[in-house]
Amino acid sequence: MSDAGDRLLSFEIHDALFALPIAGVLEVADAGRRACVPTLSPELVWVCNYRGEALPVLSRERLLELGEATTHGAEHVLVVAHPRSGEACFGLEVDRVLGFIEGPPALERGSSLIIERRSVDGRMATILDPELLVERARQVIENAPVAAGVGGEG
Question: For labelling alongside 134, which of 20, 44, 46, 121 has CA 20 to 30 A away?
Fold first, then answer.
């Protein structure tokens, strides 16, 4: 049996298989009730209640550069943590959580969100770098255009 640092949490988004090192996921939460962020488009980011705090949930399509959304209303949100601090950073909507994949991700880090691609039960899994995913989430929010009809004049 491998220790938790050697396991990946696998999940599906639009029938594609993804995984994150378990150290980068605090928990799988119910999406629950969604609230808008006043100056941002709800298609880009919304918030949910996570232990009494507002947790931003980013568009998985924008975050992972998947193209246009084909479905809405995923039931689960992965609470993604910064790997060094362990603090909740944002939520990522997923269609299904599948379970654990044994074995650590590749050790090489580049500038891509994708650490590696690995065959898992006859499917290709895309293993994501949690640290770069947190950084990408920050960039998406910082560079988000103000939602139409929102903002002050003057």
Answer: 121
Q: Identify whether 55 is part of a domain.
A: yes
CA-based nearest residue to 90, from 63, 55, 59, 60 = 55
DSSP 105: P
How many structural domains are present in the chain?
A: 1
Full domain range(s) for residue 24: 4-142
- Among the listed residues 62, 3, 51, 6, the one whose alpha carbon sits nearest the alpha carbon of residue 27: 51
CA distance 131 to 7: 16
Residue 68 included in any domain: yes
User: Is residue 153 domain-resident?
Assistant: no
pLDDT digits (tens, 9 = 90+) for 68-105: 655 556 778 999 998 788 888 899 999 999 999 988 77
Strands 114-120 and 88-94, bridge-based pairing: unpaired
Question: Could you report the per-residue pLDDT of 117-154, keeping only the tens digit for each?
Answer: 999 999 999 999 988 999 999 998 888 877 665 444 43
**Separation of alpha carbons 50 and 91, rounded Å:** 9
